[in-house]
Write a structure and sequence with these properties.
The chain is mainly α. It has 13 helices and three strands; from the N terminus they run αααααααβββαααααα. It folds into two domains: 96 residues, DNA polymerase, domain 1, CATH 1.10.150; 177 residues, Intergrase catalytic core (hpI Integrase, Chain A). Strands 1-2-3 form a three-stranded antiparallel sheet.
């Protein structure tokens, strides 16, 4: 028992150092740090139960494989397994940096393949229903309609919407410039509905707000003159879903998914949709083709030479 207690102290000492590393050097959020530490503690507990004399320095790839077999047997999902492996990799990467170990035992460990999850989408009538329930008698309602039309009309991420700037609106050319992940910029077409709603919002709401310093170039503001937060966008949509009575799990990202799906169902080129969404890889965009079962079938019937009707002789 004394050995078990000693090994536990060693594990906890390294885990404590790893926690400080994540907070101070990696600047991770409190929730992310908590998730990492929770996963490492699971692995540490397993090691101490299965091999009481096993300290972090002595962990081998064989020990890791045994642990992965165990979590697989108890029915942990592929997503949870992948997250656990990611945390363990980070922990042993930290031990390498601290010169505690010289060889990372996680190097040859592969994460389980995750199934591609089809994104939730709304039908065109669902979108219209959401927008029609916005109360346009209030300044917030006029703004919120512009927000929904822009999210759905341009396929934006929440972060892209709240950081959208007036200086990046090119209405004459019917484009907006978006700064996406990794500060990569892209041009996205903007339709007449979104343009009209933004102009109405500017004329009747935004121009009458006392804008706080540093916020003058942001398109969407709260009533106090500051740019909106991600949380605020989620709350706006959550409240709207409640009012409409739609029995679906809807978030701001659902509008982005719906944009992509409706574009592809309408015959848009996959590459064009990739550019508009700001996807690094075409395979990320291809997931939307699975949402409409007729899409691939129709593409084959239309373009594959062996599926075209045989000419009568």
């Amino acid at each position: 028992m004394r050995i078990f207690g000693l090994r536990n102290m060693i594990w906890q000492s390294y885990i404590k150092g790893f926690e400080s590393f994540l907070k101070l050097e990696k600047s991770l959020s409190a929730n992310s740090v908590e998730a990492y530490i929770r996963d490492i503690n699971k692995f540490a507990q397993y090691c101490q139960i299965e091999s009481p004399d096993l300290s972090p320095e002595k962990v081998t790839i064989s020990d890791l494989k045994d642990f992965l077999n165990w979590i697989n047997k108890i029915g942990l999902s592929a997503k949870s397994q992948s997250r656990l492996i990611s945390g363990i990799r980070a922990f042993f990467g930290y031990l390498i940096l601290e010169d505690v170990i010289r060889i990372n035992p996680t190097q040859l460990i592969e994460s389980p393949k995750l199934e591609k999850r089809l994104p939730d989408t709304l039908s065109v009538s669902d979108i219209e229903r959401l927008i029609s329930h916005i109360d346009l008698s209030s300044p917030e309602g006029i703004r919120n309609k512009a927000i929904l039309e822009t999210l759905y009309g341009c396929g934006l991420r929440v972060s892209e919407l709240i950081n959208l700037r007036i200086s990046n609106l090119f209405f004459k050319d019917e484009f907006v410039k978006i700064t996406g992940k990794g500060d990569k910029e892209r041009l996205v077409p903007i339709g007449s509905n979104a343009k009209s709603c933004i102009r109405t919002y500017f004329d009747h709401v935004r121009n009458h707000i006392d804008i706080k310093k540093g916020n003058s170039d942001f398109v969407f503001l709260n009533k106090h003159g500051s740019k909106l937060t991600r949380v605020m966008i989620f709350l706006i949509i959550k409240d709207l879903v409640r009012k409409t009575g739609l029995r679906k799990r809807i978030s701001p990202h659902t509008l982005r998914h719906s944009f992509a799906t409706h574009m592809i169902e309408g015959g848009a080129d996959l590459r064009a949709v990739q550019e508009m969404l700001g996807h690094e890889s075409i395979t990320t965009t291809e997931i939307y083709t699975h949402l409409d079962r007729n899409y691939l079938r129709n593409a084959i019937l239309k373009f594959h030479p062996r599926t075209k009707p045989t000419p009568k002789t």
